[in-house]
Amino acid sequence: MTFAIQSHISLKPHNTFGMEVEAAHFCQLDDTAQLPALLASSAYQAGPVLWLGGGSNLLLTRDYPGLVIKVALGGIRLLEESADSVLVEAAAGENWHDFVRYSLQQGWYGLENLSLIPGTVGACPVQNIGAYGVEVKDRIAQVVCADLQANGKPLLLENADCHFAYRDSVFKQEAAGRLLVTAVRFRLSRQPQLKTGYGDIQQELEKRGIQQPTPLDVSDVVMAIRASKLPDPAVLGNAGSFFKNPVIEQSQADALLQRFPALPHYPAGPGRVKLAAGWLIEQAGLKGYRQGDAGVHARQALVLVNHGLASGSQMWALARHVQETVRQRYGVELEAEPLVW
């Protein structure tokens, strides 16, 4: 199939920080049948190449000198169904939140806690997205990929092959740059199995007088909670949570808890503890902090925001300041969650 490669294209509409940077070359992937010709093109061969989904996990600090490929693969298919569950496939370019809501409306449950997370379906296994006590790996059955080193040959990875970890997967590690996620297959339940004990979900349900919530109720509540804390990228440029919750050794956590007894912490495997990055940043006095138009959000310290005219390099300078402040105060390293170019 044919496709068009354009030159000198603004990436402002394609990143949720709203950074005005330019791609030397740009094209859109609408069908996997386009892959062989795309991979053989001079722009692809010359490189570098940036595969782009919703642009919601990306900070662009400068122009991109190579080819940016927008993955716009669409479609949702029901592959299997039984009395208890369904296997549904969503193409990589589908909007994640729209897919979650569509699934719930069909009576396919399990993704309700992941409502209103920005981005596309194709990004969800790469990041192993998670929220409110749920990680997407728990619902992924298989990931459909294209092998970019084998002319786009399709490849089907089982859940175990994806090496899922906290905000991590094979797609960010050994397969980075080789495997392109083209679709994701989810095993969803026909029977509600609600998880309402994390964060403010139960409190919000009680506030609404909902004693026997449905999965759609949980989704509605998660949406309301996220909207109350997180800025809309269409209004205030951001990439959601900018820092991962750090995982440290138990001994370091014990020492920190002696100094800061209120520090939120959670088990993260044998001898490991996960800390709340937002708490660390807020208690370091950085909630609402600004360097010009680059700022830490006033309601959620995990989120860095572009108040209007901040450049990507200014946003990254702010991020480095946050990292250094937390390091000096707590001895904890914060890792950026978005890809930074």
UniProtKB/TrEMBL annotation:
One of its GO terms (biological process) is peptidoglycan biosynthetic process. Pfam families: FAD_binding_4, MurB_C. Its cofactor is FAD. Keywords: Cell cycle, Cell division, Cell shape, Cell wall biogenesis/degradation, Cytoplasm, FAD, Flavoprotein, NADP, Oxidoreductase, Peptidoglycan synthesis. InterPro entries: FAD-bd_PCMH (IPR016166), FAD-bd_PCMH-like_sf (IPR036318), FAD-bd_PCMH_sub1 (IPR016167), FAD-bd_PCMH_sub2 (IPR016169), MurB (IPR003170), MurB_C (IPR011601), MurB_C_sf (IPR036635), Oxid_FAD_bind_N (IPR006094). Signal peptide: none annotated. It is an enzyme of class 1 (oxidoreductase). It comes from the Bacteria. It catalyses: UDP-N-acetyl-alpha-D-muramate + NADP(+) = UDP-N-acetyl-3-O-(1-carboxyvinyl)-alpha-D-glucosamine + NADPH + H(+). GO terms for cellular component: cytosol. Residues 19-191 form the FAD-binding PCMH-type domain. The active site is at residues 167, 241, 337. Pathway: Cell wall biogenesis; peptidoglycan biosynthesis. Its EC number is 1.3.1.98. It is found in: Cytoplasm. Gene3D superfamilies: 3.30.465.10, UDP-N-acetylenolpyruvoylglucosamine reductase, C-terminal domain, Uridine Diphospho-n-acetylenolpyruvylglucosamine Reductase, domain 2. Cell wall formation. NCBIfam families: murB, PRK00046.1, PRK13903.1. HAMAP family: MurB. This is UDP-N-acetylenolpyruvoylglucosamine reductase. It comes from Aquitalea palustris. The gene is murB.
